[in-house]
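Worked example

This section walks through a single chain of length 233. The input is the sequence exactly as stored; nothing has been trimmed or padded.
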Amino acid sequence: MANVLDRELNRAEKKGSAFDSILYRLLAQELAYRQERSMLYRLNHAKIPWDWTLKTFPFDKQLGVKKSQIMSLASLAFIERAENIVFIGNPGTGKSGLASGLLHQALIDGYRGRFYNAQDLLDELYASLADRTTPKLIKRLCNYPILVIDELGYLTLKPEQVNAFFKLMGERYGKSSTIITTNLEYEEWYDLFRRRPLVDALLDRLKHRCITIKINGPSLRVPSNEQNSNKPT
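Given that input, the structure is written out below as tokens.
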């Protein structure tokens, strides 16, 4: 700030600027500086493992995704409505990239959020049971307006993990947005969690305010030359 002040005073002296003009520029620069620092903090704290954005997503290669729908979601109105998003698709179809891109956009726009691999989240919930900090952890997770849970698939789960996860989702219901990526259809969640009454309750709440996007397209991890070789001639 001192450097900015010296620069502005020198500039004012040369141009004969009024004091209120100097003050306005100083306050504007200070505000911009604080906003940038706040944004960088949100980005670092969110723990997104990749530098993916919606601008870099290869919509031209993944025809199973409607770009117009995703860009509409990028307006982030779903967060204000506390709606959930569930991306369902085979591995490599871009589910994580889209979820990360929406989270990144939310962070840029001023929302706080967090990215979790599903297994890591469930392990953290389980570890919190040992020192009885589960309520504190769930409260912290519920304070995020947007939470991404990535790769909810066939995991090895203990009953305590299932209970804690259902508690978390129940607490976030109707208050905050959760984005889940999974290769499981909703019917397969019963095999994952193995507790039909709880899964019924979870899906009832999750799908009540939910945008489900099924990606029926090729894996983006397949080399482009291999994809070309599979094209009909």
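What to look for: Strands lie at 84-89, 113-117, 146-150, 177-182, 210-215.
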